[in-house]
Amino acid sequence: MKLKLTLFLLSVCLLFSACGGQSASFPDNSSASSEWQGTPNAVESQTQPEMQMAMPAGSLPMIAGNNEGAYYIWANGQDPSGLTLYYDYASRQLIHLSNQVLPTNDEENPGWIEDIFGGAAPIAVNGKFYVLKYGKAPLPKIQYEGSPSILLEMEPNAANRKRLTLPSGMLFKSYSGIAADGTDLYLLLAAFDSSTLQITEASLCRTDFDQGKINTLYDFDIQKKDVTIIGVYPQGLILQRSSFPSEYSNADITEQIEHLSYQIQLYSVVDNSLFDTDFCWDQGDLSFVLDGSTVYFVRSGETTLRKYDLLNGKETVVTENILQGTDCAQADSVILTGEVYDEHFQFVVEGQETGTYYSYAISDGTVLPLKLFYPYMGAELPVTIVSESEEYFLVNNGMKTLRRTASGTDGTFYTMDSNERQYALIKKDDYWNSLPHYLEFNDSLLEELAASGR
Questions:
Q1: Which residues make Cβ contacts (< 8 Å) with residue 225, sequence separation at least 6?
Q2: Residues with Cβ < 8 Å from 224, sequence gap 6 or more?
Q3: Second label for 70, Cα 20 to 30 Å away, from 82, 84, 147, 258?
Q4: 424: buried, middle or exposed (CB in 10 Å: 19+, 13-18, 0-12)?
Q5: Signed CA dihedral, 321, 324, 330, 336: sign only
């Protein structure tokens, strides 16, 4: 069990270390807001957008789901293109997202993506299907050709494709989340100075696929404070700001992370206003999860679960001991982690010898151990939720090894073993009660694609 916890904590550390990275500003054709501070109650009488997270912070998802199925991008082995595959929940089949009987590797196939160099992430939100493609980073003295950073918007069946291309030198801000309001996407873009290899500004932007624009809403000077989208509330976005004292500006990144301070701010997309909250902390002080405008958190070395309302600034104790009723009488640390699903969040308890995973039900405070694991390379990894529908969770419950073709730096092809994630559906109550009643997919299409050399 200790090995399980070590692998888990390593991934947590990498995620939050990445959130302390740097980013930059986007000189767009729309006017950006200045550093104006508003109030959370300023727009209560106006129509509220349908805010939701489209992509969690700290991730580059390989799969994105809705109520009917999930999108997965398969990287072709012989060129930089990709194929969109679809996990259909009704038939439990992995299929091509294509209207062709024999899907082709060209633009005649609506699920074909010409270029996914640098990585591509599917997004399913706003009743649409999106693809975010990172592209090449613009480096000094290197010819920047092809592989721009792009966003694609399509209907759920990949029809009516629209494209937004970032200008040369612009990047998607790494590890920031992306939000949606029912129509548009909200994301952070970074301007990269290839002469200094630095990113000093970040801009909050909103997509407008109908007009073919990415509109700038707000510019952030991140030399002073970094910024990341971490959640949404009814009127807009929840931002995490981070900074370290100036005396550590020349220190290595590990030391800078150790001295980071954080603050949560709210940005209203209704009237383009930014305002501070009093929810602040230093690196290592606490762990937290967001449920709308409510922050649930546990301070380091404690087992008391607290919540903080970002809109009214009220902090209350939810329970004096989140471990009450469990078999963990003592714990070295309690770490809240991940996203809120089905009105539950998860946490891991590290003891002197073992680590244990639990879920917490927000509605009634029920705490249950999470005991679903799968073997991988001599370890046991927790079965994780990757998407939620009305009735089921889509979970990663295993790995499978495929023999794939890849292209070397000299242009020659070779074969290699590739570890691909295995997905399944599970009823929500079965997941919380650790009952491995998986509804497996027929994903033999992966073997067919690998065998074809794609």
A1: 241, 242, 243, 263
A2: 243
A3: 147
A4: buried
A5: negative
d(CA 219, CA 400): 44
CA distance 73 to 121: 7
- The CA-CA-CA angle for residues 259, 333, 374, to 5°, reads 110
Which residues make Cβ contacts (< 8 Å) with residue 444, sequence separation at least 6?
A: 94
DSSP lists the bridge partners of residue 360 as: 345, 367
Strand partners, 39: none
Q: Say how many residues make up the chain.
A: 454
Query: Could you write out the DSSP letters of every residue in 69-82?
Result: EEEEEEEPSSSS-E
Find where tokens 């010898």 sit: 353
Backbone angles phi, psi at 347, to 5 degrees: -150, 160
Contacts 24+ apart (CB under 8 A), 439-445: 439/92, 439/392, 440/92, 441/87, 441/92, 441/93, 441/94, 442/92, 442/93, 442/94, 443/87, 443/94, 444/94, 445/85, 445/94, 445/95, 445/96
Instruction: Tell me the one-letter amino acid at 362.
Output: I
Per-residue pLDDT of the chain (454 residues; tens, 9 = 90+): 433 333 333 333 333 333 333 322 233 333 333 333 444 544 444 567 899 999 999 878 899 999 999 999 999 888 888 999 999 999 999 999 998 888 888 888 999 998 888 889 999 999 999 999 987 665 555 544 556 789 999 999 999 999 999 877 788 998 899 999 999 999 999 987 777 777 778 999 999 999 999 999 999 988 889 999 999 999 999 999 999 888 888 888 888 889 899 999 999 999 999 999 999 999 999 999 999 999 999 999 999 999 999 999 999 999 999 998 787 766 778 999 999 999 999 999 986 555 689 999 999 999 999 999 999 999 999 999 999 999 999 999 999 999 887 776 666 777 888 899 999 999 999 999 999 999 999 999 999 999 887 7
Using DSSP bridges, classify how beta strands 178-180 and 82-88 pair: parallel, antiparallel or unpaired: unpaired
Q: Which two tokens stand for residue 189?
A: 């873009």
SS3 state at 154: strand
**Token pair of 7, please?**
């692998």
Cα separations in angstroms, 43 against 38, 179, 234, 264, 267:
10, 19, 11, 20, 12
Tokens of 76: 């072709």
pTM of model > 0.70: yes
The residue ranges of DSSP E strands in 209-260, in sequence order, are 213-221, 226-233, 236-243
Q: How far is CA 216 from the centre of its chain?
A: 22
